[in-house]
Structures are given as C-alpha cells and as structure tokens.
C-alpha cells in the first residue's frame, strides 16, 4: 500500500439507495464514507486474492494492508 499520508481524490456516482446503505454502514462503524469505502475495497481484494505487485513482494506490506 502507498504511503498513508498521500491520498488521491476519486469522484464516483452511485444510486441513492446504495449511498444510503454506505452511510448507514459507515455510521455503524463510526467511519467516514471514504474510510468505509476504503475498508470495503481492501476486504474485497483480500477475499478475492487481489493485491498490488509491490504488496506481493513484501510480507510487511501485506500485513500493513490488513490493518
């Protein structure tokens, strides 16, 4: 994973119902919408065995991504 202090903006569109579900999930875990999306993407990639090439080379990076 890249340096946690560096972020990039992502603009996306989603159905209002999906956005409301995201908001409810984020509220339940006391997260922002962005952080909830990040957590969901990381969980999905871990479950599907998807990783960046740089993360495959370093066991330390893989363990950092799980946090």
Coarse shape: globular
- The total count of helices amounts to 4
Rounded to the nearest angstrom, the radius of gyration is 14 Å
The chain-level mean pLDDT equals 85
Descriptive keywords:
mainly alpha, about 70 residues
What does this protein structure show overall?
This protein is mainly α and about 70 residues long. The protein contains 4 helices and no strands. The protein is globular. The N and C termini lie close together (about 10 Å).
Layout of helices and strands:
Blueprint: H1 16-28, H2 33-48, H3 53-57, H4 59-65
Helix pairs in contact: 1-2
Write a compact overview of the structure shown.
61% of the residues lie in helices and 0% in strands. The chain is built from 4 helices and no strands.
């Amino acid at each position: 994973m890249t340096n946690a202090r560096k972020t990039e903006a992502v603009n996306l569109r989603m159905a209002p119902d999906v956005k409301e579900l995201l908001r409810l999930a984020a509220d339940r875990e006391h997260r922002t919408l962005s952080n909830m999306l990040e957590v969901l993407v990381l969980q999905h990639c871990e479950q599907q065995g998807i990783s960046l090439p740089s993360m495959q080379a370093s066991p330390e990076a893989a363990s950092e991504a799980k946090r």
